[in-house]
Amino acid sequence: MDLATLWFCIIAAFWLGYLFLEGFDFGVGMLLPVLGRDDTERRVMINTIGPVWDGNEVWLIVAGGAMFAAFPAWYAGLFSGAYLPLLIVLLALIGRGVAFEYRGKIDSARWRRNWDRVIMIGSWIPPMGVGLLLATTVLGLPLDAEGNRVGSAFAAIRWDTILGALAIVGFSLVHGAAFLALKTEGELRERARTLALRILPAALAPLLLLLVLVQSKEGEIWTAFALAAVPVAAAIAFWRLAVGREGQAFAALATVITAAALILFGALYPDVLPSTGDPANSLTVADASSSPYTLTVMSWVAAFGAPAVLVYQSWTYWVFRKRIGTKHIPKVHAPK
Amino acid sequence: MEVLELARWQFGITTVYHFLMVPLTIGLSILVAGMQTAWVRTGNERYLKMTKFWGKLLLVNFAMGVVTGIVQEFQFGMNWSAYSRFVGDVFGAPLAMEGLVAFFVESTFLGLWIFGWDRLPKRVHLACVWAFSLATVASAYFILAANSWMQHPVGVEFVDGTPTMNSIWAVLTNNTALAAIPHTVAGTFSVAAAFVVGVSAWQLWRKRQRNVAGKRMVDQDVNDEHQRVWRSSLKLGTWTGVVAFGVLAITGDLQGKLMFEQQPMKMAAAEALCHTEQPASFSILAIGDVADANCENVKTFTVPALLSFLAHNDFTTEVKGIEDLVGQYQERYGSHYPDDPALGELAGQPIDYVPNLPVTYWGFRIMIGFGAISAATGVLALWLTRRDRVPDSKWFPRLALLSIATPFIANSAGWIFTEMGRQPFVVVPNPTGVDGVWMFTAQAVSNVSAGEVWVSLISLTALYAVLGVVEVFLMTKYIRGGVDAVYPPKHPQGDSDSNDHDDTGDSKGDALAFAY
Fold first, then answer.
1. Contact B85 A147 (CB under 8 A)
2. Per-residue pLDDT for B216 more than 70?
3. Would you place residue B500 in the very low, low, confident or very high pLDDT band (cuts 50, 70, 90)?
4. What pLDDT is stored for residue B238 in this prediction?
5. Pseudo-torsion of CA B95, B96, B102, B106, nearest 10°?
6. Which of A19, A138, A297, B305 is deepest in the core (most CB within 10 A)?
7. Strand pairing partners for B350?
8. Across B114-175, where does the E strand assignment appear?
9. CA gap B344, B6 in Å, rounded
10. B473 CB-contact burial (10 Å; exposed 0-12 / middle 13-18 / buried 19+)
11. What domain of life does the UniProt record list for this protein's source (chain A) (predicted)?
C-alpha cells in the first residue's frame, strides 16, 4: 500500500471514529425533548455525554485537518464545493457547544429551556450535514478541471445526498437511544430502550438504502460482504436491545457504522471526490495527495498520536462507566 | 463586494473574535492549574476557592474559544480553497498536528477535570488540569508555526508549481515562529493577568464598601476569608502581568528585528517610513494623516536613531523606506498581477505593495501602548493594596475593571498589524528562501459565489455577536456572585488558613453541579 492510500484509510478511520462517537452524543441531544420528561431527566441525559462530547467532536476537527494535510485538493474541493451545508453544520456546532456549557450556569427554567432548544437543533443539524457531505464526497459534485465546483451553490443538495443526510441522522438517533439505555438507570433507561426498539427499523432504513445505492454504483466485491453485514448487525442490535443487553446492542450498532464506513470509503476509492460531469475531472487519491515527505511525517505523527488518543479517551469512558440516574443529580447551584 | 473582500472581512472578523477568547483561556488555564497545585500541595482551602472561582470563568470562556476555533479550520477550505491547494503540503501538517496532538488532549482532559472532581484521586485530577492547560499552549505553538510559515516560508522546495515540504523540522523551528510563540503566549498571560487583577481589585473594593457600611461584624467570618482569596488572586495576577510584559518587550524587539529582515515593507509601514533614512528615527505618535497613497504623513514626536537601533541593533544603520522597497518588490515579484481570469478585476492590474498605512501604523502603536498600560495598571493596583490596604476611592475599581480591556485591545491590534502588514501577500516571500514560494492574497480565494460568502459572513458575525453578549452576561453574573456562587458556604470553618487536608473539602454531590 502506498502512503497516499494509507492516508486515505486513516482519514476514513477518523470519519468512522467521528460517526461512531459523536453519533451517539448527537442522538442524546436529538432525544432531549423526547425522553427527558423534566429538567432533572434532561440533566441526566446531558450528563451521560458531558465528559466526552467535546473529545468526540475533535474527531471531526482531526478528520478535516488530516484531509487538509494529506489531500489538500480534496479538502479544498469538497469544503468550497459544499459550502452552504458545511456552514450550517458549523453554525449548529457553535450553538451546541456553547449550549452544553451555558445551560446550567443560570438557575432559571426559561434559560434552560432555551438552551435545551439550541442543544436539540444543534444535534439534529450536524449529522444531517455530515451525512450530506459524506454522500457528496462519495457520489460526487460537478467539477471543472481545477477541481472547483461548477454549477450552483446548491449542487451538493440532491435526492441522493439527502438520503445520506437521513442515513446519518437515523443512525445517530438509534445510536443515541441505545447509548442512553446503556448509561442511565430506572425509568429513563426503560424509555430509551423501548424507543430504540421502536425506531430502529425505520431509522436504519435510509442508511441501508444509501449503502445499496453506493454499492450498486461503485461497489467492489468485498464491500458487498460489508453490505451484507449491515442488516445482520442491525438485527443483532434489535435482538440484544429487546432482551435488555444494551452494551451488546451498542456494540452491534458500532458494527453497523463500521460496515457503512467501509462501504462508503471502499466505493469511493481510488477517487476522493468524483466529478459528476466529466469523469476526467474526478479527484483521485493520487492527484489530490500531498508529497511523500509530508505523508511520511504525518504517518509518524499519527503512529504515535492516534494510539495515545485511543488510550486516554478509553480511559475517560472507563472513569465515567457507571450508569447515572435522577438520584445522582444534585441541586442546581448558580449565582443569584 | 467581491468574494476576495468578503472572504478577507470574514477571516478578519472570525480571527479577531476567536483571539479574544483564546488568550484568556490559555493564560487563565495555566493560572488555574497553578492555583489547584497550590491547593493540593498546601491543603489550604483558599486555593481551592480560587481554583473553583476562576475555573468557572475559564469554562464559560473556553466554550466560546473552542466553537469559534472550528470555524477557523474549516474556512481555509471554504473561502480560501486556492490557498489550501497551493500550500496544503506544508501548511496542513501543523494544523493536523494541532488536532491530533493538542485538541484531543485539551478536550478529553478538560472533560475529565470538570467531571472528575470527586471521582479521580486528587493528584490524577490535578494532572488532568495540567494536561489540559499545557495542551492549550501546544495548540498555540502549532497554529503559530503554521502562521509563521505564511509570514516566512521555510523548509520547502518548489516542485511542479507548488511549495513542497522538505523539512518539517525547519517549519516547526522557523525563527519567525520561535519569536512569535513566546510573544503570543506572553500576550495570553497579560490578558489573563489583567482579567484576574481587574476582577480581584473590584471584589476587594466591594467588600470594603460593605464593611464600611456597617456590616463589618456580620461579614467578618466568611468574607475575611474571601478577602484573602481576592488578595492572593490580585498578587498572582499582578506578578503574572509584570513578567508577561517583560517577556513581551524582549520578544517583541526580537520579532521586530526579524521582521526588518523578512518583511521590510511591513516594518516600514509600521513606522510610516516613506523615505530611506540613515540613521532612522522612531516615530512615537503622528499628528494628522498617516497618508497611504502619497506618503506625505506628518510626523511629530520622534526619537532620533531609535528605529535604526530597533532594526539592526546599532544607531547608525540605514533603514529602507517604503518608496525604495516598492521598487525592490516590483523588481523581484513583478509589477502587475498575472493575466489570470481567476483574479477577476485584478488580472493584469498593477500590484500595490504598500499595506494599509493607517492600520499598520496605528496597529503597531496601539499594541505597544495598551500592552504597557495594562502592566502599569497592575503595578498600580499592587501598590494601592500594599499591606492589606484597599483604597476607598471609586477610581481604583473602575480603573482596574477598565484595564481588563487593554491587553485584549493590544492583542487584537498586534494581530491586525501582523496580518494586514503582510498584504498584498498571503504567503510572504522569504527573501533568502526558494523562489516561487509566495502567493498573493488575491490568488488565494475560493471559486465560490459572493452570495455564499455573504451568507456565511453575516450569519457567523450575527451568531458571534449574540454569543458574545451571552458570554459577557454570564461572566458578569459569576464575577458578581463571587466565591459564594461557585462554592456554597456550607463548611463554616473559623480560620480556613489552618491546613485542611480533608479530601472532601468539596462535597461529593456538587461534582456534577460544577459542570452541567
1. yes
2. no
3. very low
4. 92
5. 100
6. A19
7. B336
8. 156-159, 162-165
9. 14
10. middle
11. Bacteria
Task: Please list, in sequence order, all residues whose beta carbon lies within 8 angstroms of the beta carbon of residue A303, skipping any fewer than 6 positions away.
Answer: none
Residues 286-325 on B with a CB inside 8 Å of A are none
Rounded-to-integer distance, Cα B385 and Cα B383, Å = 5
Q: Which helix (H) or strand (E) holds A283?
A: strand A283-284
Contacts of B315 (CB under 8 A, 6+ apart): B279, B305, B306, B308, B309
Chain A touched by B141 (CB under 8 Å): no
Q: Domain extents for chain A? A: 3-195+270-319
- Angstrom distance (rounded) from CA B401 to CA B414: 22
Averaged pLDDT, B393-400: 87
Q: B253-279 burial by CB neighbour count: b if 16+ within 10 A, else e?
A: ebbbbbbbbbbbbbbbbbbbbbeebeb
Q: Which residues in B lie closer than 8 A to residue A64 (C-beta atoms)? A: 73-74, 77, 99
B238-256 mean pLDDT = 93
Cis ω before B153 (30° cut-off from 0): no
Beta bridge partners of B164: B157
CB contact under 8 A, A87 and B105: no
Grid coordinates in use for B288?
494628522
Which residue is it, cell 475559564? B58
B117 touches chain A (CB under 8 A): no
Give Cα separations from B102 to A10, A101, A308 (angstroms): 18, 21, 12
Q: How far is B96 from chain A (nearest CA, A)?
A: 4
Chain A residue at shortest CA distance from B165: A294
pLDDT at B292: 53
When pLDDT is cut at 50, 70 and 90, the band that residue A265 belongs to is: very high
Q: In this predicted structure, what is the pLDDT of residue B148?
A: 96
- The tens digit of pLDDT for each residue in B58-95 reads 999 999 999 999 999 999 999 999 999 999 999 999 99
Closest CA to A191 of A326, A317, A318, A96: A326
Euclidean distance between CA atoms B293 and B102, whole angstroms? 44
pLDDT tens digits along A270-327? 999 999 988 899 999 998 999 999 999 999 999 999 999 999 999 999 999 989 888 8
Residues 6+ apart with CB under 8 A from B77: A64, A68, A75, A76, A78, A79, A80, B84
The ipTM, to two decimals, is 0.94
Picking from B40, B55, B117, the residue whose alpha carbon sits closest to that of residue B499 is: B40
Size of interface A-B (CB pairs under 8 A): 258
How many angstroms separate the CA of residue B357 from the nearest CA in chain A?
A: 32
Pairing of strands B425-427, B439-440: antiparallel
Positive or negative CA dihedral for B479, B482, B484, B486? Answer: positive
Enumerate the residues of chain B whose CB falls inside 8 A of the CB of residue A155: none
Chain A contact present for B451, CB below 8 A: yes
Name the residue with cell 528615527: B281
What would the DSSP string read from start to end of A82-151? THHHHHHHHHHHHHHHHHHHHGGGS--HHHHHHHHHHHHHHHHHHHHHHHHHHHHHHH-B-B-TTSPBPS
| Threshold 0.90, pTM exceeds | yes
Question: What angle in degrees, to the nearest 10, is found between the helix axes of B216-262 and B175-210?
Answer: 160
Considering only CB atoms, which chain A residues are within 8 Å of B169? none
pLDDT of residue A252: 96
Distance CA B72, CA B92 (A): 13
- Per-residue DSSP letter, B101: I
